[in-house]
Write a structure and sequence with these properties.
Blueprint: E1 2-8, E2 10-11, E3 14-20, E4 29-32, H1 39-51, E5 55-67, E6 76-86, E7 96-102, H2 104-108, H3 115-126
Parallel strand pairs: 1-6
Antiparallel strand pairs: 1-4, 2-3, 3-7, 5-6
């Protein structure tokens, strides 16, 4: 089981997703929780590393479990997801090649989609926070 913390940041009714260097798929911004770290601590660290910004107004959205995309079959993903605002303009740093904001349909139309991200997209759409 891979345990991660993820950011559900919505702008103009679209959800931010990041694409790591050398990969084709866009994932939730965030990453693995280090030993001894809480999901919230991991979220703050990962967003600073990936997008070069801090977070404000952080609230837990929920826990999402799915198959971990790009890992061995039957590898589970346990993702603690948080809603939050950014403290500045994001920019791709380090291991992140790019980031984009998607509607549900735009993300679903990609050649490769991460099941965990798709779960969050659908949940946010049912809450009326992102466009289909």
């Amino acid at each position: 089981m891979i345990r991660t913390a993820a950011l559900a940041h919505v702008r103009d009714r679209r959800l931010i997703q990041t694409r790591p260097e050398g990969k084709e798929v866009f994932y939730m911004a965030g990453g693995k929780i280090d030993p001894g770290e809480t999901p919230l601590e991991a979220l703050h660290r990962e967003i600073e590393e990936e997008l070069g910004v801090g977070l404000a107004g952080v609230a837990e959205l929920g826990i999402f479990e799915a198959e971990a995309y790009g890992h061995a079959t039957n590898t589970g993903l346990h993702m603690t997801c948080f809603l939050a605002d950014l403290t500045g303009e994001p920019h791709a740093t380090g291991e992140i090649a790019e980031f984009r904001y998607f509607t549900v349909a735009e993300y679903a139309a990609m050649d490769h989609v991460a099941p965990g991200s798709m779960m969050v997209f659908k949940h946010l759409a049912t809450l009326g926070l992102v466009d289909w």
